[in-house]
């Protein structure tokens, strides 16, 4: 039984689920479009944001830091701001020039870390080559690292029994699709295309993480993951 996860850039994640080994993809796969699920999730988030605002007076805030002028990065940031508007989340954004220094970026991160109106910080990747990405990601407060890229969050994802505070959004979105469509992963062979720290590696870790909750000691139920 096969389960393939694909991430197509700015396009919605697509799942191809094949229930029978040996059959062609065309005859046995179900294509799950994430748009309908995303719409439902956004409606749920909008309701939760309204509830929080009514009960506490707090409006969730998301800060996005963009370095440089890559068109794809600008599109991602624009889409994030639009999504915030749709669900009632307040957005803060900073755009820095390509030739900015690490200190420039860290200063803005520090400001957002200490700003009580900001509850999450997104650093749009990739960063320019002269910037030490690890150093910058380490500067984000682990409690506001909504991308799940801080080494402590990533490390907790890899360790059994230690849930991360946040998980990278694309692989988490893929797992949410599996959950919402009741796709059982025990005994499956999962093919993860790519092994980056942003998508491929956390996707494999999440597959293993969610499989472990359903493990009943039957070695035949093992999940096999291929990169």
From TrEMBL:
Start and end residues of each Tetrahydrofolate dehydrogenase/cyclohydrolase NAD(P)-binding domain: 168-208
Pathway: One-carbon metabolism; tetrahydrofolate interconversion
Annotated keywords: Hydrolase, Multifunctional enzyme, NADP, One-carbon metabolism, Oxidoreductase
SUPFAM superfamilies registered for this protein in UniProt: Aminoacid dehydrogenase-like, N-terminal domain, NAD(P)-binding Rossmann-fold domains
Any Pfam family matching the protein: THF_DHG_CYH_C
Residues annotated as transmembrane: none
Membership in a protein family: Belongs to the tetrahydrofolate dehydrogenase/cyclohydrolase family.
Name of the molecule in the record: Methenyltetrahydrofolate cyclohydrolase
Organism: Dendrobium thyrsiflorum
């Amino acid at each position: 039984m096969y389960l393939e996860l694909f991430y197509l850039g700015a396009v919605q994640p697509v799942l191809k689920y094949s229930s029978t080994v040996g059959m062609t993809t065309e005859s046995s796969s179900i294509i799950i479009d994430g748009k309908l699920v995303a719409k439902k999730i956004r409606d749920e988030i909008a309701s939760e944001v309204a509830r929080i605002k009514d009960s506490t007076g707090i409006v969730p805030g998301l800060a996005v830091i963009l370095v440089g002028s890559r068109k794809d990065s600008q599109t991602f940031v624009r889409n994030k701001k639009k999504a915030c508007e749709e669900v009632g989340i307040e957005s803060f954004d900073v755009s820095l020039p390509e030739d900015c220094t690490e200190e420039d970026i860290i200063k803005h991160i520090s400001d957002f870390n200490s700003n009580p109106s900001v509850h999450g910080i997104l650093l749009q990747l990739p960063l320019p080559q002269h910037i030490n990405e690890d150093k910058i990601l380490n500067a984000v407060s682990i409690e506001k690292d909504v991308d799940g890229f801080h080494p402590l969050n990533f490390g907790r994802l890899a360790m059994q029994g230690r849930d991360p505070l946040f998980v990278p959004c694309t692989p988490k979105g893929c797992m949410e699709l599996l959950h919402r469509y009741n796709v059982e992963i025990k005994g499956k062979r999962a093919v993860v295309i790519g092994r980056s720290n942003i998508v491929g590696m956390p996707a494999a870790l999440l597959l293993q993480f969610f499989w472990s909750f359903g493990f009943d000691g039957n070695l035949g139920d093992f999940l096999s993951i291929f990169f």
